[in-house]
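Troubleshooting: if your tokenizer reports a length mismatch, compare your output against this known-good record of 140 residues.
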Amino acid sequence: MQRTFAIIKPDAVAAGHQGAILAKIQEAGLRIVALKSLRLTKAQAEGFYAVHRERPFFGSLVTFMTEGPVVALCLEGENAIKRWRDLMGPTNASEAPKDTLRGQFGTSIERNATHGSDAPETAAYELGFFFSGLELADLG
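Known-good structure output:
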């Protein structure tokens, strides 16, 4: 079993799509291990997206990610990283197939409804950024 990190971004939360996205996650056979709703501070968004600090879109990304609540998730399943990324679709929502989350709920490359880890190392870092060990413990 593999775990990955996911975010339902402020655009999708503001539009009320988090329930539909959560349902699609479960329909895809991924298990939701942990979930929390929060509003990122500027410092938290800058820290989370630090890898993009030198990119021209960094400032607008931080502004976008702090404009409203997000839903942070730990997902688990066989090949969870690839399965979640396939379910999300391409980063640019305007080019994403309509049967993907970004194609259905996103509107642009930035306002693309969801985020997901791209590798096991990234997933470990991102999960640790948002969740404590106790929150991710399988207590069942």
